[in-house]
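Lab notebook, bench 4. Still working through the backlog of constructs that have no structural model yet. Next entry is a single chain of 317 residues. Request: give me the structure tokens for it.
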Amino acid sequence: MNLIWLEDFLVLAECGNFSRAAELRHMTQPAFSRRIRMLEDWLGVTLFDRATHPVTLTETGLWFRATAQDMLARVERIPDEARRVAQAGSATLRFAATHALSLTFLPDWLRGLEAGLALGPIQLVSDVAQQCEALMTQGRAQFFLCHAHEQTPARLDPSAYPSVKVGDDVLLPVCAPDRQGRPRFVLGGATGRRVPILAYSAESGLGRIVRAVHGAALARLRADVAVTAHLATVLQSMARSGRGVAWLPASLVRDELDEGKLVEAAEASWRIALDIRLYRRGGAEPAAAEAFWRAAGAQAPGPRESGGVRSPKASRS
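Model written out:
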């Protein structure tokens, strides 16, 4: 049996017309009809009732449709399963992590884990959340490190991709200071002045969180989007140059806050408390990956602690 016959069969089962199915399969109708007949001959059954218009599946055809779909799905999974087999003895840990955490949290966190675990080679892909999620679903990464918030459920199915909280962070609305060291822009300020917002693109996980938590409030303020970008580091640079207000992780801007290069641009209610979560693929992984997952879970923090971020300067007038 040729697997192409299964694809032909499913197309005809869907559209019920030999001419249309042949067109969709980019071939002539006689050639298409011969392939359907070859499949039926191989099975020794009739799959289609050709006396009806459109043609319909016989009772056997109805059974075989589910079988054909399952066979093709199994074939599609073979490359991923083959890669898993090839990697079974590998000590390499394959990570996907968002840009901001790759720069700030990940290096020190790994160093802390190394105190009780000998880490082998690490392969890291740093990208926006959407691309990292794709790497996980494609089987090209074992772990995914990202910011998370209860109002933005993960796009990875929790039953297939379990996760553990490994840290805390806070998104702070920040901007450049004026000459007196006060925020150049203030969200919800009494002056009613429109505030330029430095926004994340749709592919950004931090952007999802900001829109979910403060999207309605920003719409009421009629805030103007001045710049849109994928990366927190790009918005960080734009904020420092005075282009507007950006929500940036405290872990990324802590030094700039200490040095006064950035200041908070709103009251504390505009902050967004975040978890840092580590996701893994379901199912068995190589021994090195399983050992790493156990170590990450053993060092997972307790309840979120408050007071880790200094008071906003935006409250001063």
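Notes after review: The mean pLDDT is 89. Residues 180 and 317 are 10 Å apart (CA to CA). Flag for follow-up if needed.
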